[in-house]
Design a protein that fits this description.
The protein is α+β, with helices and mostly antiparallel strands. It has three domains: 100 residues, Rossmann fold (3-Layer(aba) Sandwich), CATH 3.40.50; 70 residues, Dna Ligase, domain 1; 236 residues, D-amino Acid Aminotransferase, Chain A, domain 1 (2-Layer Sandwich), CATH 3.30.470. It is 33% helix and 27% strand. It has 14 helices and 20 strands. The strands form five sheets. Strands 13-12-9-10-11-14-19-17 form an eight-stranded antiparallel sheet. Strand 12 and strand 13 form a beta hairpin. The longest helix has 19 residues. The termini are far apart. The structure holds adenosine-5'-diphosphate (ADP). The site of adenosine-5'-diphosphate has 20 residues, from strand 6, strand 7, strand 12 and strand 13.
């Protein structure tokens, strides 16, 4: 097992990794930018090192500084969290070259799955269903047009190197295609340094359902069931739950087995997620995230498996102590992402938190790095807390989430708590009628 892990991240996920390390008896090193000196991850780690100024590219994305921090602190592994360098093949490779274990998949797997067009091709070859569309990137607007005619409009152009909901463009008619192709290509180039686009059928009202995967370095790959993440705004998830209210037991088993087949085909040996779109009873592979996800707690709640610990143990070469048949879903779980933002306009609302009173009681978990007096920096994402509840049924979760949201007091900044409360009262939400278009009704 590792002696000391450096956490190349900040905020709630850095703290989440610290909790896991403490329970495993592993020492921790926090890294922080100038403005994060008062963060809780800095306070609760055994050691801390400043890795640069506030802008992410100078600190949390600065590979040289991170590796130097790992070397001076003698850390034997790095946990990248999510976001930042968690899906950087280069970072994984540099860790490897420096004899520091990267807690995640190999650089090669990250690169393969990070190229969404290649990932789709790989999964298709493993027998995972994909949406009709181009087999890899489309070279020209004419080629895209031909492909669009074949699959039928509407189609979506997606950046091969895209992520975080960026680099996608829906095209409804052939007249729009040429301009959309040029613009999406230029956008992809400026955002990701790679202008490659691929094209696929666009589904009007799909559900986003993803499968949690866990592997080890002994060839075992299992799934920990699915999460429903259809409540999104601008392709950013807001509410996640497990299990999905849409699936029958047979579909659940099939989806899980399909995801395991896909992950096993690339020799996956850590935690990861395979995302699918679900429409009219069918699943289509969308992408694979080769890291821990924001929404991992809902899976932890229904399986009783600590995913971050499992990830660390797998990286250390330990064999999984459970098999697929040992896993059962216990109850239901739901997560609301509490963001520092205007609840109506959805614009960021950074600033100093003056009151921060988190809910508790049975079945409530709050993952956060915030506290009264904490300053929400405009330099980073706006997530201030993850409010996670568990219950026997989805109905229990709804009522529990409502009472938890009502007693979550955050002052000094604006949050989206009022919006979450509205969703908990929405008739479609209550009935489990969800789709990625759900949030459109709440937009002004
Ligand atoms: P990212 O890597 O940026 O998260 P994804 O490929 O995971 O991008 O897609 C993010 C979201 O975009 C999905 O959850 C879904 O809402 C929407 N989306 C992506 N592809 C399609 C499609 N073919 N049809 C309809 N919606 C899509």
């Amino acid at each position: 097992m590792f002696r000391k892990i450096l956490i190349a991240n900040r905020g709630e996920i850095a703290l989440r990794v610290i909790w896991a390390c403490k329970e495993l008896g592993i020492k921790t090193v926090a890294v922080h930018s100038d403005v994060d000196i008062d963060s809780l991850h800095v306070r609760f780690a055994d050691e801390n090192i400043c890795i640069g100024p506030a802008p992410s590219r100078d600190s949390y994305l600065n590979i040289t500084n991170l590796i130097a921090a790992a070397e001076v602190s003698n850390a034997d592994a790095i946990h990248p969290g999510y976001g930042f360098l968690s899906e950087s093949a280069e970072f994984a490779q540099v860790c490897d070259a420096c004899n520091i274990t990267f807690i995640g998949p190999s650089a090669q797997t990250i690169a393969l799955m990070g190229n969404k067009a290649e990932a789709k091709r790989t999964m298709k070859a493993a027998g995972v269903p994909v949406l009709p569309g181009s087999d890899g990137p489309v070279a020209t607007a004419d080629e895209a047009k031909e492909m669009a005619e074949e699959v039928g409009y509407p189609v979506i152009l997606k950046a091969s190197a895209g992520g975080g909901g960026k680099g996608m463009r829906v095209v409804r008619t052939k007249e729009e295609l040429e301009t959309a192709f040029q613009m999406a290509g230029a956008e992809a180039n400026s955002s990701f340094g790679n202008g490659d686009l691929y094209l696929e059928k666009y589904l009007e009202e799909p559900r986003h359902i993803e499968v949690q995967i866990l592997g080890d370095k002994h060839g075992n790959v299992i799934h920990l069931f699915e999460r429903e993440c259809s409540i999104q705004r601008r392709h950013q998830k807001l509410i996640e739950e497990a299990p999905s209210p849409a699936l029958s037991e047979i579909q659940r088993r099939e989806l899980g087995e399909t995801a395991v087949r896909g992950a096993a085909s690339v020799g996956y040996y850590t935690a990861g997620t395979i995302e699918f779109l679900y429409d009219k009873g069918k699943f289509y592979f969308m992408e694979m995230n080769t890291r821990i996800q924001v929404e991992h707690p809902v899976t932890e709640n229904i399986t009783n498996i600590d995913l971050v610990k499992a990830q660390i143990m797998a990286a250390a070469g330990e064999k999984m102590t459970y098999k697929q048949k040992d896993l059962k879903i216990a109850g239901h779980s739901m997560e609301c992402r509490i963001n520092a933002e205007d609840p109506i306009r959805f614009t960021p609302s950074p600033g100093k938190i003056t009151t921060f009173c988190t809910p508790g009681g049975p079945g409530v978990r709050v993952d956060t790095a915030a506290y009264a007096g904490y300053f929400v920096s405009p330099h980073y994402d706006s997530l201030v807390a993850k409010l996670v509840v568990r219950g026997h049924t989805r109905g229990d979760c709804l009522m529990r989430m409502k009472r938890a949201l009502e007693s979550f007091v955050v002052e000094g900044i604006k949050t989206n708590i009022p919006m979450h409360l509205k969703i908990m009262d929405d008739e479609d939400f209550k009935a489990g009628k969800l789709s990625t278009k759900f949030m459109e009704r709440y937009l002004v």
